[in-house]
Amino acid sequence: MSRFEDIRTGDTRSLGSFAFTAENIREFARKFDPQPFHLDEEAGKKVFGGLAASGWHVTAAWMKVMVEDLQRGAAARGETCEPVVSPGFRDLKWLKPVLAGDTVSYQSKVISTRVSGKRPQWGLVQSLNTGTNQHGVLVFSFEATVFLPRKTA
Amino acid sequence: MSRFEDIRTGDTRSLGSFAFTAENIREFARKFDPQPFHLDEEAGKKVFGGLAASGWHVTAAWMKVMVEDLQRGAAARGETCEPVVSPGFRDLKWLKPVLAGDTVSYQSKVISTRVSGKRPQWGLVQSLNTGTNQHGVLVFSFEATVFLPRKTA
User: Fold this and answer.
1) Does B49 touch chain A (CB under 8 A)?
2) What pLDDT, in 10s, does the model give residues B114-145?
3) Residues ≥6 apart with Cβ < 8 Å to A24
4) Binary contact (B92, A89; C-beta < 8 A)
5) Is there a contact between A25 and A52 (Cβ–Cβ < 8 Å)?
6) Shortest CA distance to A85 belongs to which of A128, A119, A130, A34?
7) What is the Cα–Cα distance from A33 to A105, expressed in whole angstroms?
């Protein structure tokens, strides 16, 4: 992700990818979504065709690659990484199961940018975020809104 | 959560609570949201007034208490726990920071129920889910839609 001033509607960016393994799927599920099809391969096969990642794991992995992309961008410019503060998101969709062995590549496309009316030192960026597996199948999407500080404010 | 047949619009249920600690906030952040204000108390103080949990951690904790509530309900009826399968979520809002030492209590209120048109063996339950901290402050809300199997189908 770039600085607010450099972001344009329509910009599309590959954020990075995340490899889902039986081990990390089970680890997340034990802590936050202890349902059999997230913990046990046989139970997962019956419902999803394999050991399936929690939808929240797929979502958290998006956050991870998004933050890392932001940090790489800042480091490349020799800047301190800006905080990503979000008031929330809209219309999260888990479209297809994510199974052990799948790698999901995340993309972000800017839908709109505007300066905050209440806090003009901040910009608001709305984006459509998607995750696609190694077979090219869209598995995940949602609309995010994030605040970014304005350099010029 | 009850069986689909027992769920009525307006039903409100306490799902359980989750205690956010400096340790579990940092552990989640290291894996999924490695921003300074989720990892370092001083950095958190500057932005949020304390070491702040990732919004996705607050969300994952909702999933944990919701699944555990469902499992307790099934166990009390001597039944196998039904899977919670969701096509996605709407309008997630992180309204206030959740800090180390906070305990968030989660509630769920049924907005609507209907039998799936495409798959009549399933019911769809739409609910407004909220999280409130130990001071009674609303910190989190979103609308969930989940599929539940129909016993009578």
Assistant:
1) no
2) 998 988 888 999 999 999 999 999 999 999 98
3) A57
4) yes
5) yes
6) A119
7) 22
Check if the beta carbon of residue A142 is closer than 8 Å to that of residue A92.
Answer: yes
Tell me what ipTM this predicted complex has: 0.88
Question: What is the pTM (predicted TM-score) of this model?
Answer: 0.91
Interface check for B33 against chain A (CB to CB < 8 A): the answer is: yes
| Residue B13 and residue B1 in contact, taking contact as beta carbons nearer than 8 Å | yes
* Chain B interface, best mutation among A39, A63, A140, by max B CB count within 10 A: A63
Please state the φ and ψ torsions of residue B136, each to the nearest 5 degrees. 80, 15
Q: For residue A56, give the CATH number of its domain.
A: 3.10.129.10
Residue-wise pLDDT for B27-76, tens only, equals: 999 999 999 999 999 999 998 999 999 999 999 999 999 999 989 988 89
Q: Work out how many domains chain B is built from and give that number.
A: 1
Q: Who contacts B150 (Cβ-Cβ below 8 Å, separation ≥6)?
A: B4, B5, B115, B120, B121, B122, B123
| Burial (0-12, 13-18, 19+ Cβ within 10 Å), A113 | middle
Binding-face residues of A in 92-151 toward B, CB within 8 A: 92-94, 142
How would you classify the pairing of strands A103-115 and A12-19? Answer: antiparallel
Domain housing B24: 4-149
Which residue, among A139, A136, A129, A135, has the nearest Cα to A96 in the 3D structure? A139
Interhelix angle B22-32/B55-76, nearest 10 degrees: 110
Contacts of B33 (CB under 8 A, 6+ apart): A60, A63, A64, A67, B54, B55, B56, B57
- d(CA B73, CA B94) in angstroms, rounded, equals 28
